[in-house]
Write a structure and sequence with these properties.
Helix content is about 50%, strand content about 20%. The protein is an alpha/beta fold. Bound molecules: 2'-deoxyadenosine-5'-diphosphate. Keywords: Hydrolase.
């Protein structure tokens, strides 16, 4: 059965505003916010921590099995929030939002979080080199990948309006096809 609601990935470098966007989008649409980081932590889908980077070494098979069992593909209506996107099967995903941030703004957000040394440098480099945008473009069809700015609160409001409109259009297109 075709899903009645789309699945949306919100991705980007840590600190760009994924959680901020995903929470508000889930609230506005009634979709489920899937914080992949939280699931990995809560369900233990990891093989320990990379202490230098201060992040989990994720067991992707376990994570994907868990999401598959949650009927993500059939039900839709999920907002996936993670700093990677290439592991999710294309058939699950309807829209990939890559958030981008000015590097001075991002630097302030990451240092406010206490990031320093290698973790700070790697994330700053990743944003400047648009690693996540390239990953999204390599993993999904060009027409479902959108790049949005997330420097200011006004950006968040504008982005949410745009994504909500996209959701409405997606649903309308599906209805017209039925
Ligand atoms: P992420 O989930 O990508 O790591 P976040 O949503 O936790 O990022 O945001 C990190 C911090 O930056 C948090 O204090 C909220 C703030 N922030 C995020 N996007 C913003 C924006 N567009 N304008 C102003 N502040 C923003």
């Amino acid at each position: 059965m075709a899903r009645k609601n789309p699945n949306i990935i919100i991705t980007g470098t840590p600190g760009v505003g994924k959680t901020t966007h995903a929470e508000q989008l889930a609230r506005a649409t009634g979709f489920k916010h899937i914080s992949v980081n939280q699931i990995v932590k809560d369900e233990g889908f990891h093989e320990g921590r990379d202490e230098e980077l201060g992040s989990w070494i994720v067991d992707e098979d376990k994570l994907l099995d868990y999401l598959e069992e949650s009927q993500i593909s059939e039900e839709g209506g999920r907002v996936l929030d993670w700093h990677a996107c290439d592991l999710f099967p294309e058939r699950w995903i309807d829209l990939v939002v890559v958030l981008r941030c000015d590097s001075t703004v991002l630097y302030d957000r990451l240092t406010a979080r206490g990031y320093k040394d290698k973790k700070l440098d790697e994330n700053m480099d990743s944003e400047i080199m648009q690693v996540l945008l390239d990953e999204a473009r390599e993993s999904y069809k060009e027409e479902i990948v959108v790049e949005l700015r997330s420097d200011s609160v006004d950006d968040v409001d504008g982005n949410l309006e745009r994504i909500e409109q996209w959701v409405e259009n997606w649903k309308k297109d599906r209805k017209d096809e039925e």
